[in-house]
Amino acid sequence: MTGENKSDSKDETDPYTNDPFFKRIFDGQWNACIGRQGHEENYIDGYIEAAIELADAIFEKQLVGKRDTLVLPILYNARHAIELALKFATGHLIEARLIKDDGRKLSHNIKAYWDHLHNSAIGDEKLSQTIAALKPYIDSLSQIDSDGQELRYHRNRDDDPSLADHAVANLRLIRASLRELEKLISTFKSRTVDFIDERAAGSYTNRCSRTDLLAIARFLPRRNLWNTDFFDQQKAVVKERYGLSNKQFSIALDRIQENREMRSALGMESDLLHLTDDDIISVIEHWRRLHPARDQVEGDLGLDYFDTSRFKVMRESAAVRKDVVTAIEARLLNEALAELEAMFYLERDRIFVECHKSMIARVLKEHAAAKDPKVKIMHLMEKTNFLQCIGGAAERLGRLSLAERLKAM
Fold it and tell me: How many other CB atoms sit within 10 Å of the CB of residue 150?
């Protein structure tokens, strides 16, 4: 965004003509996006960034005379950023039905919000660890300002002096802590969003998220070694790390073995839905005709755009492209072509493997509407990262032997 409201025109009457802060000025460089052009996260980021900028300014500009005045908005902004982050996570997790709504009305009690999240036993290691890591900041700021008043006003709700038990606060310590807090808040936000997105894929237990299950699958030995002492050793580590009982560990193993990507991490093969390994090898061989390996490239066309040899090479390339498309169209049925395209985008866009079947169905509908498979094939054959993406998708989907063959191509 440039910060300009495209729906407004210069001919419209400005309702804020005399407003000292919101008078309309057409300035794409310095117009800030707020309100309907802003986002919830902007509030969280803005307050922690403001705290850090103020703290940095004191040292960079040697604002020794302003230490006593700026320390208050610095600490308040940090506290407010934490409050907003806690409310952001709590609200989204409740909406996604991942934690219970305790019926609490909106307040400024950051300790109560943290307690609710901490005691909800969220089934995700990273999110739980991040919540735990916030505790020192919660304890510190809620102790000196339980309701968001004492850092804003000289006297609190009881008409007592604010911060009466404190006399000094070291700005070097505050600045260092703010930088760590900023990292935690960023992780807290992003992991909350990712955790919620993962749940839609359906691969989780009440104690482990999809990310946790994939980490467990990668940590455990291959499936054919599960009857060994080494598996028992790794099992003990996993149970302790994630706080799992034997039953919960067994449930986690069941979910892992139901998931293509997690099965792949265990060395377990899975079949594709419509494509054979030979189908994909054949397609890659045709693709290589258009994108030879670097050590096989004979040279470029040069810079003389009117060189007749250039036109000859272009005609030959066009003939090769036509031959490649024709050969692939003859080999792949509609479903196989749809799966090939789905595999490419599955890996390129890092889509969950659980979506593979639905992606194929969607692509099939798109192909049926377009009624031009040659265009779809050519679109894929033009991708210089086609081999890389198909190889990655094959591995994540459980075609391990195919993925190994593709690495050599």
Answer: 24
CB 406 within 8 A of CB 391: yes
pLDDT of residue 34: 84
* Unique residue bearing structure tokens 């397609």: 283
- Higher-pLDDT residue of 318 and 217 is 217
pLDDT at 6 over 50: no
Pairwise CA distance, residues 66 & 44, whole Å: 25
Cα 264 to Cα 30: distance, rounded to the nearest angstrom? 51
Same domain? 192 vs 248 = no
> Do residues 243 and 361 both lie within one domain?
no
Q: In this structure, what DSSP letter does residue 161 have?
A: B
Contact in structure between 64 and 57 (CB atoms under 8 Å): no
**Phi, then psi, of 155 in degrees rounded to 5:** -125, 145
Q: Helix 277-290 vs helix 308-331: angle between axes, to the nearest 10 degrees? A: 170
Domain end among 265, 286, 306: 265
Between CA 195 and CA 209 the distance in angstroms is: 7
Q: Are 391 and 343 in contact (CB under 8 A)?
A: no
This prediction's pTM: 0.85
* Alpha-carbon gap, residue 112 to 116, rounded angstroms: 6
d(CA 408, CA 241): 38
- d(CA 274, CA 14) in angstroms, rounded, equals 60
- The 10s digit of each residue's pLDDT in 154-210 is 888 888 787 778 878 899 999 999 999 999 999 999 999 999 999 999 999 999 999
Q: How many helices (H) and strands (E) does the chain have?
A: 17, 0
CB neighbourhood size of 322 (10 A): 12
Instruction: Point out which residues pair with 155 in neighbouring strands.
Output: 161
Q: How confident is the model at residue 16 (pLDDT cuts 50, 70, 90)?
A: confident
195 and 231 inside one domain = no
C-alpha to C-alpha distance for 79 and 152, rounded to whole angstroms: 11
On whether the CB atoms of residues 364 and 335 are closer than 8 A, the answer is yes
